[in-house]
Amino acid sequence: MAGGKLSPRQKMINLMYLIFIAMLAMQMDKKVLSSFGFMKEKIEDANVASSTNIDNILTSLNTKASDQPDKFADLNTKAQEINKLSENLFIYMSALKDSILSDTDDEDKTNYEAMSGGDRLDEMFFKGEGLTDKGEEFVSNINTFMNTWVINTRCIIFIDNTHLEILFSYI
Fold first, then answer.
1. CB of 13 closer than 8 Å to CB of 1
2. Which residues, listed in sequence order, are joined to residue 167 by a DSSP beta bridge?
3. How far, in Å, CA of 132 to CA of 45, rounded?
4. In angstroms, what is the C-alpha Rg of the chain?
5. For residues 147 and 85, is the Cβ–Cβ distance under 8 A?
């Protein structure tokens, strides 16, 4: 398959091979969906624990900013801004998830093997080759979060076709 002059027979075999791989990729196993669902539950549990930890850290930082404002006031302000930004994105994503699952029965919300269709998301975000208003709103929210986060953390992001690299400049 790598270069050179291929006979019509070999071209047909290669095309059939690619179609076969595409068909296999479209038939995602139900166990894979279950695994993603269980991972989602574990991540949600970790989010609750992390949220409590972050609240404790922010409270401690706020106390330090009160005690030593010249050293911690700016850091506290930036931390509060980033926390608010993250909370807003989290609330938006939660509302979006709830609207997607709004007409799903409660017992089906944990039946991950039945969630193989993505038609609802496609209809919500895409119209032809472009985005719907909801899709534009989603992209705008992600871009706003990303751009504001980069400014507040003094982070430099390099993106090319092969990887994403993030460099931090600590305050």
1. no
2. 156
3. 32
4. 23
5. no
DSSP 3-state of 130: strand
User: pLDDT of 124-170, one tens digit each?
Assistant: 888 888 889 998 999 898 888 888 877 766 655 544 445 444 444 44
pLDDT over threshold 90, residue 63: yes
Closest by CA position to 132, among listed 141, 142, 122: 122
| Residue 131, H or E segment | strand 130-131
d(CA 13, CA 7): 10
CA 2 distance to own-chain centroid: 35
Q: Burial letters for 30-45: b for 16+ Cβ neighbours within 10 Å, e otherwise?
A: eeebeeebeeeeeeee
Please count the other Cβ atoms lying within 10 Å of the Cβ belonging to residue 79: 19
Contacts of 150 (CB under 8 A, 6+ apart): 156, 157
What is the rounded distance in angstroms from the CA atom of residue 162 to the CA atom of residue 7? Answer: 33
Q: Is this model's pTM higher than 0.70 or not? A: no
Using a 10 angstrom Cβ sphere, with 0-12 exposed, 13-18 middle and 19 or more buried, the burial of residue 47 is exposed
